[in-house]
Amino acid sequence: MSVHHEGMYEAAVRYYIYHETMESIARYQGISRSSVSRLLAEARQTGLVRISLAAEIGSRSPNARALTEAFGVVVHLVMVGDSTPVATRLERVARRAASLLAESVHDGALIGAAWGVTMASTVRYLEHRPLRDSHVVQMNGGNNPQDTAAFYVGSILQPLGQAFDARVVHFPVPAFFDFRATKEAMWAERSVKAVIDFQQRLDIAIFGVGAIHGDVPSHVYSAGYLDPEDIAQLAAEGVVGDVNTVLLREDGSYADIELNARATGLTPEAMRHIPKRIGVVADPSRAAALLGALRAGTITDLVCDDATAHAVWERMAAKGG
Prior knowledge:
Blueprint: H1 3-17, H2 22-29, H3 33-45, H4 62-71, E1 74-78, H5 86-104, E2 110-113, H6 117-122, E3 135-138, H7 151-164, E4 167-169, H8 180-186, H9 190-199, E5 204-208, E6 210-211, H10 219-222, H11 228-236, E7 239-243, E8 246-249, H12 268-271, E9 276-281, H13 287-295, E10 301-305, H14 306-318
Parallel strand pairs: 1-10, 2-3, 2-5, 3-4, 5-9, 9-10
Antiparallel strand pairs: 6-7, 7-8
């Protein structure tokens, strides 16, 4: 341990554990008060000191309790109010999701991540927390005809890896194959099987819930991943959204949806083997899609705003659960 790190550690222990003042620590270490302040700031930035808050009072709201009782999920509710602008709602929920992820990871963790509008916002609020021997694993293919190099996906995965000093494991396949037979052939390739092996051993996953029709457009439906004919077919099959680009109906069913035979994301069945699964939603208009994701068992920890939780509860109540 370096002399600088020892000084930072000692300052952090005295300040956060023994509640000494900065002036007292400065006198003990023979440095200025401003130097102590910088040491404490660095201790937070490097992850030596990790500050967390208790769950918000909103998590004990009637809507949160209803979702917990119905689906057995832990609800991390962000109180933002009905009149809150869309961008502000997304920012506050994304901040809470980033905090929850940082609280949940550990050395050696395999962290699964999907891509999308909500995840792009979430990674912006991750603070640096170094981990040892950890990996960030892409959970669904990301290439499409307009973005063959998957720059959008990389812009989400790379900040995740940097936040935790983790190696990023990319999944270099399309979000949807053109032909089912092509997917079946690719799944036999050793390079693809190596990524699938990582996916099958994930400790934690974080993802948004996409919706075909939402106030915040889902990237998979607005950025060329699906043709207009595909969208029309999904509507005919009753699809409301997706998790990891696996398409879902509001009742949680997905296995008989034709396009899912060409989708490359982890299915709800596969996801249920991941111990902690953080679903992040900040859009009341995605209530039907979120309800489908909950019914499919994709989520253990739900991070959402109060209006979204209420919208889901209203849909449940209207249809008898």
